Amino acid sequence: MELRQLKTFVKIAEVNSFVKAGKILNYSQPTMTTHIQSLEKELKYKLFQRLGREVTLTSEGKHFLLYAKRILNLCQEATQRIESGTLAGKLTIGTSEAFGILRLPAIIKEFRLRYPDVSLEIKFKYMDELFEDLKKNEIDLAFVLCQKVNHPNLTAEILAHEPLTLVAAPENFLVQKEKINLMDFSEQNIILTQRGCAYRAAFEELLKKLKTPPIIMGVNNLQAIKHYTMSNLGITLLPHIYVEKELKTGTLCKLPWQEAPFNMSSQLVYHKDKWHSSTMSAFLKIVREYRESQE
């Protein structure tokens, strides 16, 4: 099994075409075919299904693609590190919007100071999408804000407990009440993040107890949610750390919710079988230092 065979296989899988992949890699079609046939002979299974001009991965091919990408990434990292004499390579990080805005910048800043030659790619996605990317090895690690992650193939480390706060504009009549309960929500528009967010799911589960659920406005941007709430378009539930400034200035007010609290945790998540490259190990060390600094 040769690296050039793996590169050929990965490129064909990416573009779904032997012809397109050959042009990109500057290989002739006979060479492309030989590479794949050699791999299939060694692996003892077919990697591609050919139906007319269409080329798709077999189920075995999809599984092998994860390992092929991992091998090529490791080779690239090893080459870069040897050439530079310092820690190099690439790290792909997935994050929820809340963590990516609130906590990740401090971690990245410290990492960049120590390892300026490492390339970082940050992907903002919802929790379920991040878990799927981890399983496919499309990202190296992820940061999520949710209840304790309990997944058989993933390892999770709690970084910080994140209380959630119900907030409204100062002129909202709920602000003047001594306490509010579930029935008060039926008279309000609720502004929440889009589906796929853990704390939206927790809030929606609570709202199911109402005979007449309130109208929910889904907004996929935390900053927009804050501004819509400050404009009194509805009430919202957000991580307390994300609205601390507005609560201090009085542009948002905390609602007197005295029932069961909404609690989540910021968590670091990675695949339990993920090989920790030197780059990833260095990043994890800084993440854990950050956690200790917050305790």
From TrEMBL:
Source species taxonomy: Bacteria, Bacillati, Bacillota, Clostridia, Eubacteriales
Name of the protein in question: LysR family transcriptional regulator
Family label: Belongs to the LysR transcriptional regulatory family.
TM ranges: none
Keywords: DNA-binding, Transcription, Transcription regulation
GO molecular function: DNA-binding transcription factor activity; transcription cis-regulatory region binding
Signal peptide: none
Pfam families: HTH_1, LysR_substrate
Domain HTH lysR-type stretches: 1-58
Database matches in InterPro entries: LysR_HTH_N (IPR000847), LysR_subst-bd (IPR005119), WH-like_DNA-bd_sf (IPR036388), WH_DNA-bd_sf (IPR036390)
Tree of life domain: Bacteria
